[in-house]
What does this fold into?
Amino acid sequence: MTINPGWPVALALVLLLAVTLAAHRVSSYQLERPVVVAALRAVAQLAVAALVIAAVVRSLALSVLLLVVMFAIGVLTTTRRVGAPQAWPWAAAAMAAGVLPVLAVVLATGTIPPQGIAVIPVGGIVVGNAMTAHTLLGRRAFAALEEEHQQYEACLSLGLLPAQAIEEIVHRRAPEALLPGLDQVKTTGVVTLPGAFIGVMLGGGSPVQAATAQVLVLFGIMAAQTVTVGVGERLIAGRRLLPPVLVERLVD
It folds into this structure.
């Protein structure tokens, strides 16, 4: 089964976008313009991605380079979303700590072949989910540090070091960044049939092959997200991965 570009797809996209905009209007979320921009960007970016992937997929070196570019864009996106663009090296360190071991395991075990056609999609999925976990961690942790600044000062007055005081506030919120991913794993095959499963099926693979690919991806996502959040939490406690306003406020 394949889905080819054409007027049926164009019509479906227009109708789905219309439903989205109508829902925003009815709910008064006032996000109609960002929705349209996001939709147009998605179409343009995926068109470019398709052309780029087709050009580099036969070369492992070029495929790895493309994955590095995707990773860099992910780091840029998440640091902007959490309001800490100047801390991008530390965000990159947290995400790399989660992504690299996953790719090393799946390649070293021979689970996926060292070919662009396998490395690009698996790597892209893992990078994207590591980015999401980092964003959720940053937004929740930074909001807590803003709202509970008095608790931070109280911890310092009791003799705690700054890192310990930050950890006291952030640690109980860090697991919240992992809940969406855990829910996805728990409900896969019952509530949802995620992308890797559908992709293998559409590509002509058997249900067993699709299920195997999806389990591999889900385990990789769990590992990457957990390590990313754990490393990110420690970098936040060390006052390295923070937005400028918190760098100024969280002083000794």
The chain has eleven helices and no strands. The mean pLDDT is 88. The first helix runs from residue 7 to 27.
